[in-house]
Amino acid sequence: MPDFLLAYHSLVRAVMHEYSTALTQVDRVRDTFSHFTKNLTKYTFDEFRYNCKALKKSIYGVQQIACIAEELLSEMRRSTQIENADDERLMGLLSTSIHILKGYILLA
Asked: Which of 14, 37, 53, 104 is 20 to 30 A distant from 22 in Cα terms?
């Protein structure tokens, strides 16, 4: 497997890990908000606020990794000689996966 594909694969795995973390944070925010609304105390508010900050950090991590993946794809397009239809399909697949990753960011 070419080096750029290994690098891209690693980035996709990192994005999926960050996305999974963000989803966990969404659950925590939802749970602590529910707990906070049922039991209005400073402790529950602080817990809710902490989880909101953690969610924001997770989403930021996903965004940063997706930007790196997009830059890598642009560099691959510039530096890779597309010689056949398979290469063209591969580039199309990588481009589509970037758009999917950006969709994950919006969902998070």
From this structure: 37
